[in-house]
């Protein structure tokens, strides 16, 4: 079944970019520029997921979400310029399912949207999971639920660490330079590239038995990083 997404975003460039990336994945989307318009569309149409910007002309994303949640439990992914806004919506019962902060990587956003859609279709298909789990030694990474577990114990990853792991997992075996990773995961062309190294070190500490001699998050000297893992069919 073809998924359909509604995007409420007043910035045309951003909306166009998301639409383009979704289209490449075979996901159809409608777009509107204001919350009021979005609420109207939601009355007459059925969507599988909503991408919702916080800062909108007219009523803002907070208010839109509040109104939607009265009678709709569709997944809502927040686009926010400020992390605190999104944290509040997720952490304090605002009813959002996920968020990305601007600037974001359209590739990562699309991956997250796909994961949510997969989760819904999985739930509708009586728990038959279809996104593969990945193993890192004793650890199991479940991209569908953004969870990393060791012996049933959840390992906490920051949002950025999760995005980095998701990106490398989806492109496993492929070597990426720090610049490429920064562009894809941080969604920026320019910035402090050394943050990639810092995040890789943190991820290694959480995932590798010996972070100094990584078995999974590997360095290809002179090129960059890549992920070496086995897919797991176990669901
Ligand atoms: Ca906006």
Order of helices and strands: EHEHEHEHEHEEEEHHHEEE
Indicate the mean pLDDT. Answer: 86
Taking pLDDT < 50 over at least 5 consecutive residues as the criterion, the unreliable ranges are none
Largest sheet: 5 strands, parallel
Q: Write down the oligomeric state.
A: single chain
CATH architecture group name of the largest domain: 3-Layer(aba) Sandwich
What features would you describe in this structure?
With 235 residues, the chain is α/β, with parallel strands linked by helices. The protein has two domains: 4-126, Response regulator (Rossmann fold, 3-Layer(aba) Sandwich), CATH 3.40.50; 134-234, Arc Repressor Mutant, subunit A (Orthogonal Bundle). The protein contains eight helices and twelve strands. It has helices at residues 12-24, 35-44, 61-68, 83-91, 106-124, 159-170, 178-186, 194-207; strands spanning 4-8, 28-32, 49-53, 76-80, 98-101, 133-136, 139-142, 147-150, 153-154, 217-220, 224-227, 230-232. The strands form three sheets. It has a five-stranded parallel sheet, with helices on both faces. A five-stranded antiparallel sheet has the order 9-8-7-6-12, with no helix packed on it. The chain has a two-stranded antiparallel ribbon with strand order 10-11. Helix 2 runs parallel beside helix 3 (61-68) and helix 7 (178-186) crosses helix 8 (194-207). The chain is globular and about 55 Å long. The mean pLDDT is 86. The structure holds calcium ion (CA). Calcium ion (CA) binds at residues 10-11, 53, 55-56.
């Amino acid at each position: 079944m073809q998924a359909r997404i509604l995007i409420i975003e007043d910035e045309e460039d951003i909306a166009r970019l998301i639409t383009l990336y979704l289209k490449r994945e075979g996901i159809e989307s409608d777009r509107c520029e204001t919350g009021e318009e979005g609420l109207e569309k939601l009355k007459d149409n059925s969507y599988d997921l909503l991408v919702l910007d916080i800062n909108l002309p007219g009523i803002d994303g907070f208010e839109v979400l509040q109104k939607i949640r009265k009678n709709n439990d569709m997944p809502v992914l927040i686009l926010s310029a400020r992390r605190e806004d999104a944290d509040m919506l997720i952490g304090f019962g605002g009813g959002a399912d996920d968020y990305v902060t601007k600037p974001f990587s359209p590739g990562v956003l699309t991956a997250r949207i796909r994961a949510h859609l997969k989760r819904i279709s999985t739930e509708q298909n009586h728990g038959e999971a279809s996104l593969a789990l990945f193993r890192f030694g004793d650890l199991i990474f479940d991209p569908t639920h953004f969870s990393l577990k060791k012996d049933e114990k959840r390992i906490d990853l920051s949002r950025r660490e999760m995005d980095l792991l998701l990106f490398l997992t989806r492109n496993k075996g492929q070597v990426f330079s720090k610049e490429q990773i920064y562009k894809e995961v941080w969604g920026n062309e320019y910035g402090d590239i050394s943050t990639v190294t810092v995040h890789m070190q943190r991820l290694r500490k959480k995932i590798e038995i010996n972070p100094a001699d990584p078995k999974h998050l590997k360095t290809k000297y002179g090129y960059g990083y890549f992920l070496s893992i086995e897919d797991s069919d176990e669901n």
